[in-house]
Design brief:
Structural class: mainly alpha
Oligomer: single chain
Mean pLDDT: 81
Number of strands: 0
Distance between the termini: 91 Å
């Protein structure tokens, strides 16, 4: 009888401890953020989203600076990938800038993910695609560089075509997912962006 009561007491104590732990965990989860924590989180979110604007500006600046440092380069007849091609005089300049662009794009994707907790799933997909584009760029940059025109074609050039195709499709999908989520004005803007992309790829 004593042994039986002792066993029941231990079981009761363990259940009580478990219940207290569960209640404490619930309280911690439900505990509101302090004003300072909320401000810090808001600042971080703003920085992450601002990385999207910075990445676009950096991409345009890299194109312009790289083209000006590459004697004989034609903005209309040559692709931006040729600025970072193996043997290109602009590669030492644009290589680190393109990597920075990829980092900013990943940060922007993370910011959009955090912004879409209570939003539609389509925008979350767009965020994953944006971050994915940056990650692919960071991971594949050392293995998928073009060679300058006239050089022998290698596996690196083939990988570049594959990676670029994946990135372009991801961009189109990201724009499409964002377009169906953010209202009529962004939808019109997105269709305009897609049209510019298609025309630029066709010419």
């Amino acid at each position: 009888g004593n042994v039986h009561r002792a066993t029941l007491n231990r079981t009761r104590d363990r259940c009580a401890t478990f219940a207290e732990g569960a209640m404490t965990t619930t309280e911690l989860r439900q505990k509101p953020e302090l004003p300072g924590q909320s401000a810090e989180r808001g600042m971080l979110q703003t920085i992450l989203l601002a990385c999207g604007i910075l990445s676009s500006l950096l991409y345009v600046a890299t194109d312009l600076l790289g083209g000006m440092s590459y004697e004989g380069y034609s903005f209309s007849a040559q692709t931006i990938s040729e600025l970072s091609a193996i043997g290109a005089p602009s590669k030492p300049l644009v290589g680190p800038l393109f990597l920075t662009y990829d980092v900013l794009l990943v940060a922007f994707g993370i910011g959009v993910m955090q912004e879409t907790v209570a939003r539609k799933r389509a925008l979350r997909f767009a965020a994953f695609l944006l971050a994915g584009i940056g990650l692919i760029g960071l991971a594949m940059a050392p293995y998928s560089a073009l060679h300058v025109r006239g050089a022998e074609w290698t596996i690196s050039d083939t990988l570049h075509i594959v990676v670029t195709t994946v990135m372009v499709l991801s961009i189109l999908l990201a724009v499409g997912f964002g377009a169906v989520t953010l209202g009529p004005r962004f939808l019109r803007y997105s269709f305009g962006t897609l049209l510019v992309l298609v025309v630029s790829l066709a010419t």
